[in-house]
Amino acid sequence: MKVPEPQVTSAAPRMTRAAKGAPVPGQRWKLPEPKAARDATLRLVLERRRSTRDFTAEPVAVQQVSQLLWAAQGITAPGGLRTAPSAGAVHPIKSYLVVSRVDGLPPGFYSYDPEDRSLILLQEGDRQELLSKVCMDQQCVADSACALLLSAWYGRMRREFGGAAEKLVFLESGHIGQNWHLQAAALGLGSISIGKWDATAMKMLLPIPRDEEPIYLLLAGRR
């Protein structure tokens, strides 16, 4: 018998299947529709963008997370074209969200589905403190409200572009990162890029597929 979905408000994400108690891996969370920021010009957010290492304990809203993820890798045209350019429109970079303090989302490790604009829970529980240790004990990682982990799948890129694949993937991750930071500035949030970590420990901590390589970590939170 199909269990009816819970009633939710438009301000909260929607679970595609109801569950009592703790969320379980595989649950899908539909994110709110991203909203255009009408009070921030491009010049203004470019001027506001600064790397932030000091975050408050205040949670961010799920609407803001939806906006950040859309800015990073949201689909903007038929054929799966996205906010960030990708060589050959291959889009080899996968997005994962580490949630610590987001109103409306349980702490955990999620994969982001840009086509469905949803998050899929892969691992329950707050991983921010452990993630900080993987990142050489950088306190800003532990203090952030959420983190976007970008991982690269090189398979098709190497077939299409040969020896240039790695360079093109890194360029694409930079585009995604800048979109994240500019959107954070438009929302009045702090953000920073993290590239220093133990790659082996990162893959042991978070359930990333073996054929993907973590390449970039982007933090956000209240400042």
Please describe what this structure looks like.
The protein has 223 residues and is an alpha+beta fold. It has one domain (42-221): NADH Oxidase (3-Layer(aba) Sandwich). The chain has 7 helices and 12 strands. Mean pLDDT is 90; it is low at 1-12 and 15-20.
* Strand arrangement in the largest pleated sheet: 1-2-9-8-6-10-12-11
**Poorly predicted segments:** 1-12, 15-20
Can you say what the CATH homologous superfamily is?
A: NADH Oxidase
User: Termini, distance in Å?
Assistant: 47 Å
Instruction: State the major sheet.
Output: 8 strands, antiparallel
Task: Tell me the total number of β-strands.
Answer: 12
Q: What oligomeric state do these chains adopt?
A: single chain
Can you tell me the number of structural domains?
1
Average predicted local confidence, pLDDT: 90
At CATH's second level, what is the architecture?
A: 3-Layer(aba) Sandwich
CATH class: Alpha Beta
| Helix coverage percent | 25-40%
Helical segment count = 7
